[in-house]
Write a structure and sequence with these properties.
The complex is a heterodimer of chains A (about 160) and B (about 190).
Chain A (H helix, E strand, L loop, with lengths): L1 H60 L26 E2 L2 E9 L12 E9 L2 H10 L4 E5 L2 E7 L6
Helix pairs in contact in A: 1-2
Chain B lengths: L28 H34 L3 H18 L15 H26 L16 E5 L5 E6 L4 E5 L7 H8 L8
Antiparallel strand pairs in B: 1-2, 2-3
Helix pairs in contact in B: 3-4
The chains are: A alpha+beta (about 160), B mainly alpha (about 190).
């Protein structure tokens, strides 16, 4: 009788284990989407913060902050960003982009600057979701770098 | 060492009658022997029954029953869900841009990065020795100074390569750039 009970318990445990595996598999897409959205929300908030700070900078000084290396906060933006603000996130890094266009943009010579933020990440779903959430501007992707160009505003020299 | 009634000095034989005035008759040795044999037989029968029961239980345990069917069904469902999941259960993988899209994006990027060199030439009067001198530091881009005024920037990804030469501007550059960059969406 005891042996039988032991066998039944093993069988019930095996069934429970397999059912758990099925439930976990059913939940995986939901967990994956939640994870991507959480990371993209954070990245979007950071990029919006950088954009606001850069726009305040040009409002005050008439020029855009200078280019800096990827992952490095442009020194000119430090006072305008929240304390401890970082360009490095979990599995992504941000880069302030300022392209001067001395001869203008082909097709529109009045555009003499383009500014934006690039996001380099090995988690491309996060990059795509983040670019999709940013308002205005234009986004493009080269390899694992996603760039959001948001302004062509002229500098006042 | 105690002795059994069978081993006593006055053994009782079958057919013996109890002595007169000896009180109530003592149980005969034969009866005791028969009772002992009966006990033994009962015990052996019980042992045999227990053994049979054990064998039956063991067989029942190893026999495929409804619980085993449930387990097998669960295993099949789990294998199906993990190895061959239906569309709603598939994890969304990254979308890969088409070659044309990647080519157009690379052309825009190379052109924009090349403008750093252009800016350096406009300010310094000559091409920089290295791309880094003009701020061209992005991975996947190579800078080649050609003369004091001209240069070439080559961009590459795993799938596409594109070169921009300041000496020979591509004729359809404006069209290519407009495919990626929506100028109407930019702040002015």
């Amino acid at each position: 009788m005891r042996m039988r009970r032991l066998g039944d318990k093993r069988l019930a445990a095996a069934i429970a284990l397999v059912c758990t595996a099925v439930v976990v598999r059913l939940a995986l897409p939901w967990l994956d989407v939640r994870s991507v959205h959480a990371r993209a929300t954070e990245a979007t908030a950071r990029i919006d913060t950088i954009r606001d700070a850069a726009e305040r900078f040009i409002e005050e000084g008439g020029r855009w902050p200078a280019e800096s290396a990827p992952g490095i906060v442009p020194p000119e933006l430090v006072p305008l960003l929240p304390e401890g603000f970082s360009f490095e996130g979990d599995r992504y890094s941000l880069d302030w982009e300022h392209w001067p266009l001395p001869k203008g943009l082909p097709g529109d010579s009045t555009i003499t600057n383009l500014v934006g933020v690039s996001m380099t990440t090995d988690w491309t779903e996060v990059g795509e979701t983040t670019m999709g959430r940013l308002h205005g501007g234009s986004a493009f992707r080269v390899a694992d770098t996603f760039t959001h160009v948001f302004s062509a505003r002229r500098e006042i020299r | 060492m105690s002795r059994t009634p069978l081993e006593s000095d006055n053994p009782i034989h079958l057919g013996d009658t109890p002595a007169e005035g000896a009180g109530p008759p003592a149980p005969s040795a034969a009866h005791e022997r028969q009772a002992a044999i009966a006990d033994l037989l009962r015990y052996e029968a019980q042992l045999e029954q227990a053994q049979e029961l054990r064998v039956r239980l063991s067989e029942r345990r190893h026999r495929i029953g409804p619980r085993h069917g449930i387990l097998a069904a669960c295993v099949l469902v789990a294998l199906w869900a993990w190895l061959f999941p239906p569309a709603p259960l598939r994890l969304s993988g990254p979308t890969v841009p088409s070659i044309a899209e990647e080519q157009a994006a690379l052309e825009l990027l190379v052109y924009l990065e090349a403008q750093r060199i252009e800016h350096h030439v406009a300010e310094q009067g000559r091409t920089p020795e290295t791309g880094a001198d003009a701020g061209l530091v992005r991975a996947g881009l190579d800078y080649f100074p050609l003369t004091n005024r001209h240069y070439r920037v080559r961009g590459r990804t795993d799938r596409v390569t594109w070169s921009y030469s300041s000496a020979e501007l591509p004729a359809d550059l404006a069209t290519e750039l407009s495919r990626v960059l929506d100028l109407g969406s930019l702040e002015r």
